[in-house]
Amino acid sequence: MIFRRNNKLKILVSWTVVILWMGFIFALSAQPREQSNRLSTGITEKIIYAVEKVVPDVETDIERLNHVVRKNAHFFAYLVLGLLVTNGLRVSGMTGPKLYVWALFICILYAAGDEIHQLFAPGRGGQLRDVVLATAGGAVGILVYRWLKKI
After folding, report:
1. What ranges in the chain are assigned the alpha helix state H?
2. SS3 state of residue 145
3. How far apart are CA 106 and CA 30, in angstroms?
4. Domain layout of the chain by residue ranges
């Protein structure tokens, strides 16, 4: 009885975290272009400031670096989603290759939906290459999860 209750709690917590993370991604995608750009530019400026402390004479192209920051954030968000979805499926009882196939399918589906969602945010657009980037992030997250479970 206690094991069942604990298992149900693990399932509930795991999927709650997945839904919260999806909500975080959704909120970022809903931002108008200017707001989204301000957020990533702020992060980029902090990176440049830190780099200039270490290498004072370095020249940086803020626009180019900002693009890299934005794409890495996209990749990382889906890496985390891949980890969380794989965990949610595993604690729900899924095992074997279908665990990883379903986790990747969910990541792809959410990435595609996310890009469609961005079509409705002012100044934003959906891009197939972002779905590919998100899928790659999700796949890496799934592989990291699998690797961590083997340790």
Report:
1. 2-30, 33-54, 62-91, 97-118, 128-150
2. helix
3. 20
4. 2-150
Contact 90, 7 (CB under 8 A): no
Which one, of 46, 28, 26, lies nearest residue 37 by Cα?
28
Q: Is 148 exposed, middle or buried (0-12, 13-18, 19+ CB in 10 A)?
A: exposed
Burial category of 6 from C-beta neighbours within 10 Å (exposed 0-12, middle 13-18, buried 19 and up): exposed
Backbone angles phi, psi at 6, to 5 degrees: -60, -45
Q: In this structure, which amino acid lies at residue 17? A: V
pLDDT in tens, the chain (151 residues): 555 678 899 999 999 999 999 999 999 999 999 999 899 999 988 988 888 889 888 888 888 988 899 999 999 999 999 999 999 999 999 999 999 999 999 999 999 999 999 999 899 989 999 999 999 999 999 999 999 998 8
Neighbours of 98 (CB within 10 A): 11
